[in-house]
Amino acid sequence: MGNNKNYELNMNTMKKTTILVCLFSFSFVLTACNDMYDNVEKFAQGENAYNLNVKQWPVRDPFIFVDKNEKMYYLHVSETSSIGVYKSKDLKQWKKISKSFVPDPAFWGTKDFWAPDVIFYKGKYYLFVTFSSVTQKRGTGILVSDTVTGPFRPLKNEASTPTNWTCLDATLHIDSEGNPWLLYCHEWIETRDGQMVAQRLSPDLKEFAGEPLVLFSATEAPWVGSIMLNEYEAGYVTDAPFIYKSPVSDKLFMLWSSFDKNGKYAIGLAESSNGKIDGTWTQHPQPLNDDDGGHAMIFEDLDGILRISYHAPNNDSRIVIRRIQEENGALAILPE
Fold this sequence. Notes:
Blueprint: H1 2-39, E1 52-53, E2 64-67, E3 72-79, E4 82-88, E5 93-101, E6 111-121, E7 124-132, E8 139-145, E9 153-154, E10 167-174, E11 180-186, H2 188-191, E12 195-200, E13 213-217, E14 227-229, E15 232-235, E16 239-245, E17 252-259, E18 265-272, E19 281-283, E20 294-300, E21 306-312, E22 318-327, E23 330-333
Antiparallel strand pairs: 1-5, 2-3, 3-4, 4-5, 6-7, 7-8, 8-9, 10-11, 11-12, 12-13, 14-15, 16-17, 17-18, 18-19, 20-21, 21-22, 22-23
């Protein structure tokens, strides 16, 4: 029994060490990207300086907001302890406008500043950003503004995801009855098999109006592989949910991201059984892409063409924008 107990202690120590090393690796990549984001500011000066080329500009988690009235595209980007906002006329050349969110000293989030999504809801713009601090677990905070460029202010001074869970990448889904839902990831570092969760919100987005509903876990997708370290399976990731309601088939699809069995970051596709957020979600057998990229969203461009945006490759990320369409009951990314 003594040897067994020592074995268990050693295994527990190894698991904790594995998770810490994995987290350090992710933090290193994201810190390096933040440094690159800061450096692009010196190239983005001048009223007419649309000189950040989409193929050369380092960006993660690109969520593109289309303003059809202004005929302009807007992109909020994670920067060191702030969020920057950029615009483009053609999705190819971008320029920086300003910082859309700079926290005041009392703001709860001091680290991360990941994955800014901007959504127009009931006459205002809402920015969903993942934060953490030394005293509070990682979670997504909701910011609000009267304009798409900000400045944004916190809807409340705490995470809108459950504060007793480690969460990330929350976004907003409005169902067919007009009810708002918070869609978010309960992280693998707590569940080992990462979860995708939906939870009803009050109309003002400030409070929960229902209990958490686990839609699926990462391993339900047959293509998903574990994060590995020294041949030990550390966990299975869920990232970046995005809901797309097909006007063609009326199907409700979800894009989300994880790592495949070869260790590449990839975009998964899930489908609801009843066309609603609370349906049974079925995973398509293969990811949508194979270029080591993910964190995707779908938008209709100013010419009415349906497109997908994501970052790739994962460790040296650039914005990828491709055409996407529904075919044979699923979504497919078209060749460039």
